[in-house]
Amino acid sequence: MSTFQFQEQLAAYLPPMRAFALSLTKNGEDANDLLQETAFRALRNRDKFRPDTNLKAWLVTIMRNTFINNLRAAKRRKVLSDWSNNSYLIDSDVRQSTSNQGESTVFGKELQQIIDGLKEKYRKPFLMHYQGFAYDEIAKDMDLPLGTIKSRIFVARQQLKKSIEIKYHARSMQELMN
Hints:
Elements: H1 3-25, H2 28-44, H3 55-77, H4 102-116, H5 120-130, H6 135-142, H7 146-177
Helix pairs in contact: 1-2, 1-3, 2-3, 5-7, 6-7
């Protein structure tokens, strides 16, 4: 199939694909973005399409996978969209606690020091996983096998657990001595 024929068939499927995008996103602008990204990916990967197969099904698969990947990425980033004029309310805490946060701040700093004490080969995948990246994304980013990434994250967790237990056991002993 020539490039022109492929583009012609792709253009014919755009209206029903927009309807599908709208059913996924429930928003006209997001549907247009999803449709555009789907068309771009289809054109970029045209060589992977087999002419004797169903183009519409191929496009639907691309769109569905793109939509799911975008949802996962948004969840990782924890994007909060607020289109209202009262955006100052987003970060306000209704319960407004007056409790002392000093102890948790100290613990957070100590925990960060313990994490910083990990070897780089364990710290980087652990922090990426903590930030919400999937194992396969970390493996791709670090150009390492998936099993290596899982192992390093496991080792990092074990080392952190051991370091925390040692640190707080020592603190408890010190408090008993005083």
